[in-house]
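Colleagues,

For the teaching module next term, I've prepared a clean inverse folding example: a structure given as tokens, and then the sequence designed for it. I'd like students to try predicting residues themselves before seeing the answer, so please don't circulate the second half yet.
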């Protein structure tokens, strides 16, 4: 219930949640159902009650998430405003622009299965991790096609400003739409999202400061309420 998006494609392994799967590969899934018939007796009233509770929880979560994002963004803005007076590297608009540019770079590298395209923009650990994942996709002859990227919301929800600049970090929340599907090059068939449905995505991008450059340290494609709550806002006095 707390998961804000599904999982199977996109840079980092997440999904736009727009399509289905026709079968194999990529840690995907082929559906939510199962074979055979399904029947349920609601004479005891349990099923309707559960449905009502489900709707209530969805409504509550739908209200809480925007409020949490607004609150986290407020604290981040306070830190950015304070820090920018002493360090021009802290600039809210530039942080958002850098996040969106990095997102596009990562989608291109993911689609091309080539981490060399973003080697200077990510940490060594992330470069190595994703290179392994992309090499596995090459072996399976799978290619994640990504296009029609549209950002509907970009917020800075976490800022950590230390006296030692090398410890500085920020977390960005990104929401938007994307055309995200996977093809099998061996048989020339779309194996995930064959209808090419443009779907929603929600990510958090985590950056660390290295040599006065914001470097991508982590991508979280499975954003939960807990992830938003745990985004840190801190300034070392």
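(Answer key — instructors only)
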């Amino acid at each position: 219930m707390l998961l804000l998006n599904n999982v199977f494609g996109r840079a980092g392994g997440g999904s736009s949640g727009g399509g289905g799967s026709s079968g194999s590969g990529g840690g995907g899934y082929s559906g939510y159902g199962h074979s055979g018939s399904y029947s349920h007796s609601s004479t005891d009233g349990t099923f309707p009650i559960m449905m009502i509770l489900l709707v209530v929880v969805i409504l509550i979560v739908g209200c809480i998430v925007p409020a949490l994002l607004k609150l986290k963004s407020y604290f981040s803005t306070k830190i950015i405003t304070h820090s920018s007076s002493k360090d021009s590297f802290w600039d809210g608009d530039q942080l958002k622009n850098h996040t969106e540019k990095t997102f596009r770079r990562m989608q291109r590298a993911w689609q091309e299965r080539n981490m060399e395209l973003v080697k200077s923009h990510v940490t060594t650990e992330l470069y190595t991790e994703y290179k392994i994942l992309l090499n596995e996709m090459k072996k399976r002859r799978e290619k994640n096609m990504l296009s029609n990227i549209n950002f509907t919301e970009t917020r800075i929800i976490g800022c950590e400003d230390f006296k030692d600049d090398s410890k500085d970090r920020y977390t960005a929340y990104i929401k938007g739409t994307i055309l995200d599907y996977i093809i099998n090059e061996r048989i020339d068939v779309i194996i995930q999202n064959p209808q090419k449905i443009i779907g929603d995505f929600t990510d958090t991008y985590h950056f660390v400061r290295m040599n006065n450059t914001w470097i991508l340290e982590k991508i979280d494609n499975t954003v939960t309420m807990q992830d938003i709550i745990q985004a840190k806002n801190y300034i070392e006095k």
